[in-house]
Structures are given as structure tokens and as C-alpha cells.
UniProtKB/TrEMBL annotation:
Major subcellular location class: membrane
Membrane-spanning ranges: 25-44, 64-85, 92-116, 128-147, 154-174, 180-203, 210-228, 268-285, 318-337, 349-372, 393-413
Membrane topology according to the record: Multi-pass membrane protein
Compartments reported by the entry: Cell membrane
Official protein name in the record: Simple sugar transport system permease protein
Organism: Micromonospora luteifusca
Keyword terms, alphabetized: Cell membrane, Membrane, Sugar transport, Transmembrane, Transmembrane helix, Transport
Pfam hit, one: BPD_transp_2
């Protein structure tokens, strides 16, 4: 029996271009660092930039000369950008990027705080952290609602409507009953109602999921706006004066410096939001329910073959997402404000961006929501210290941060494979 030699076939190695994502981000950081060191350093003053460890100007503080701080943190950003430009191992990309972004922000703050009017050249860290979490709360709940839907294969563009309906239902029924818990349950039901419509049209009738999401947002705006004008505006005392959840202090934890007063003297929504992040993360990656949810979102045909009820899983998770988002909407009207028309103001879409920025992961969504919450709180703080930056630009800051984060920092991310694809049982 003869054998025939098979010639070796040369396979050309796959070459990556020089301008990888890491190097592009590094070049951007390098430019930001130069801007910070030169421009912020020139605009900063010799006054001390004080970062107090309390919610006012009193108490201990971290202090640094404004000009020196702006230049120093700008150099740190330059170093981070140079490291990415030179090429770092993939596992070091996010830590180095984080150092560069923090350096840029601190350089900016050294300029702003040192240049503030006399008596205002301080940043109260407790107040900033507390405000960041409060402003991030609807984003956290909204992003978690998105995780539950999209991990199941249903695109949830209706987060805005779920938050808005939750806020309205909580205010209305909380006011009528005079009971804050009734308002909370009503908010959950209101969010679930929008989710039920999403599930019926997207799963049962196979309507395009992005289109139906936008339609449901408009429906929520229209219904709540109409009822607001007919009921709440005519008799606010009866229909728009819901009781509020008081702050709950956690013994021992409340006494931790900086973080204690900021996090452990908050309302129920803060604790529920953080708890839900933990519960959903464990549920998705450590339980049978999570395995089935992820399999339905990735490969529903294979899941169906193994006996998983694909449509049932999707219905259940979409409704659960509505409950979560409805509670997030109640964090407005049962803790902070009275209801007003379209009071969510685009936060549902920022929550959707946080979901993508967090890579469809509950923990990542939390961090992304906090990033956007910090941008919002920073805009408020800069307005309070009479910043030289125009107020119109400050109002744009949270949305600019959203665009930059999703377009510039996320890079290539992969949604669940079956996300947005209707499943028709054969």
C-alpha cells in the first residue's frame, strides 16, 4: 500500500493593524492628558482645592494646590494614554483606562474647585457620592430590567415607559390610599403593565421589538400626561401628594467614613437596587433559572430541544423586568418628587446605554449607571459653585457622557445571540 505525501500548505498569519482599539483609546487619553495638563493647569488658581470628607465645608479634607493638582493629574492621564499606546496586556486595558479617566476628571476638578468663588472652593465628597447614587437609582433599576429582557432574547426599548408608568402609578395610588407601600405595589404593577404589552406584541404577535418599544414609550407618555392634566393638576392634594419613604440608617455601617453617611443612611430604593444587582447576578450565573434564561437568549432552538419552555421563560422574564423598572420609577415619586409630565426625561434610554456599556451584566450595568449618575451629579455641583462653563453645556453633560461611553469606550460588544429575534416553535 503506497502513501502519497501531502505538501505543507503555508498559512499566512493573521495580522492585526497597528491601530488597535487599545492604541486608539490610548491616543485619545494622551490628547485628553495634554489638554488637562496645559489648559486646566493654566486656568486653575493657586488656591487650595479642598475635597472634604463630609457633606459640607467642615471637617477633614484632602487638599491640593489647584494648579499643581491640575497639572499632576493631567500627567497621570498622559502616562495612562502612553501605556495604552505602547501596548499593554489585554487584562490591563480596563485598569489603565480607569486610571486615565480618573486622572482627567481629577485634573478638571482641581481647576473648577480652585477657581470657584471664595467660600465655595471645596467639594463635599459625601454629598457627591450620595447624589451620584440617588441620580443613578432609576438607571440601575432600568438597566436591570433591560438585562432580564435581553438575556432572554427580547429587546427592551420600553424602559422609559416602564419607569414613567411606575412613577405615575406610585404617585397616584400612594396619594389615594395614603399608604406608601400601596404606592410601591402599584408602581410595580404599572411597570409590569407596559411589560405585558411588550411581551404580547413582541412574543405572541412577533411585532418588531424596537418599534413596539418606542410605541409603548409614547403610549406611557400620552396616558400619564392625560391623566396628570385631568386628575393631578386639578386636585394635587388628593391625587399627587403621595407619602414618602423615610431614610433608613444601618447601625455600624452608617459610621464608616465618607461611605457610611452617603450609602447607609438612604431610603429603601437604594438598598433594594443594590440587593437586586446581587440577586440577579447570582441568579443569572449560579442558578438553573439563570442557565435557562441565558440559553433562551443565546440559542432558543437548542434550549427548546432540551425541554426548556422558551416562550414561557421570555414571558416571565419580561414581566419581571417591568416590575423592576416600575419600582425604579417609584424611586422618583415615593422618595423625592411629586409627579410631573414626562418626568423621567430620557433616563430610560440612558439606562439602555448603561445596559450596553455594562455588557449585559448586572454588575457592569451598576457601574455604568453610577458613571452616568456621577456625570449628572457633577453637572449639578458645577452649577452650584457658579462654574464658568455655560449652564447649557452642564445640562448636556450626562448625555455627552452617555454618547462617549457607548461610542468610544465600549468597543465591540456582543449582545445575546437571539436578542431581538422572535422564536416560532416548529
Amino acid at each position: 500500500m503506497s502513501t502519497m505525501a501531502v505538501p505543507d500548505i503555508a498559512v499566512a498569519p493573521v495580522r492585526k493593524g497597528f491601530w488597535t482599539r487599545s492604541r486608539k483609546v490610548g491616543l485619545t487619553l494622551l490628547g485628553l492628558g495634554l489638554l488637562a495638563a496645559v489648559l486646566f493647569g493654566a486656568l486653575a488658581t493657586e488656591q487650595q482645592a479642598r475635597f472634604t470628607l463630609s457633606d459640607d465645608a467642615a471637617g477633614a479634607a484632602l487638599e491640593i494646590n489647584g494648579t499643581i493638582g491640575a497639572i499632576l493629574f493631567g500627567i497621570i492621564t498622559i502616562a495612562a494614554g502612553a501605556a495604552l499606546l505602547a501596548g499593554v496586556p489585554k487584562r490591563w486595558f480596563l485598569p489603565v483606562l480607569g486610571v486615565g479617566l480618573v486622572g482627567f476628571v481629577l485634573s478638571f476638578l482641581c481647576w473648577q474647585v480652585s477657581a470657584a468663588p471664595a467660600g465655595q472652593n471645596f467639594m463635599p465628597l459625601v454629598n457627591i457620592i450620595r447624589g451620584t447614587f440617588i441620580l443613578a437609582l432609576p438607571l440601575i433599576f432600568g438597566a436591570l430590567a433591560g438585562v432580564l429582557c435581553e438575556r432572554s432574547g427580547v429587546v427592551n426599548v420600553a424602559i422609559e415607559g416602564q419607569l414613567l408608568m411606575g412613577a405615575f402609578s406610585g404617585a397616584l395610588f400612594g396619594s389615594i390610599s395614603g399608604n406608601v407601600w400601596v404606592g410601591l405595589v402599584a408602581a410595580a404593577v404599572g411597570g409590569a403593565f407596559i411589560s405585558l404589552l411588550l411581551a404580547i406584541f413582541a412574543i405572541r404577535y412577533l411585532v418588531d421589538q424596537v418599534v413596539i418599544g418606542i410605541v409603548l414609550n409614547l403610549l406611557a407618555v400620552g396616558v400619564t400626561g392625560f391623566l396628570y392634566e385631568r386628575l393631578m393638576q386639578t386636585d394635587a392634594a388628593k391625587y399627587n401628594s403621595a407619602p414618602r419613604f423615610s431614610n433608613w440608617e444601618i447601625p455600624l455601617l452608617r459610621d464608616i467614613p465618607v461611605l457610611g453617611p452617603a450609602l447607609f443612611r438612604g431610603n429603601i430604593f437604594l438598598y433594594v437596587g443594590l440587593l437586586l444587582v446581587l440577586v440577579i447576578h447570582i441568579g443569572l450565573f449560579r442558578t438553573r433559572w439563570g442557565l435557562r434564561t441565558r440559553s433562551v437568549g443565546e440559542h432558543p432552538i437548542a434550549a427548546d430541544t432540551l425541554g426548556v419552555k422558551v416562550l414561557r421563560v421570555r414571558y416571565r422574564n419580561v414581566l419581571l423586568a417591568g416590575v423592576v423598572a416600575g419600582i425604579g420609577g417609584a424611586s422618583y415619586t415615593l422618595a423625592l418628587y411629586s409627579f410631573t409630565k414626562n418626568m423621567i426625561g430620557g433616563k430610560g434610554f440612558i439606562a439602555l446605554a448603561a445596559l450596553i456599556f455594562g455588557r449585559w451584566n448586572p454588575t457592569g450595568a451598576l457601574l455604568a449607571a453610577l458613571f452616568f449618575g456621577f456625570a449628572d451629579q457633577l453637572a449639578t455641583y458645577l452649577g452650584a459653585i457658579s462654574s464658568s462653563i455655560p449652564s447649557q453645556f452642564l445640562a448636556m453633560l450626562p448625555y455627552l457622557a452617555t454618547i462617549l461611553a457607548v461610542a468610544g469606550l465600549v468597543g465591540r460588544v456582543r449582545a445575546p445571540a437571539a436578542d431581538g429575534k422572535p422564536y416560532i416553535k416548529g
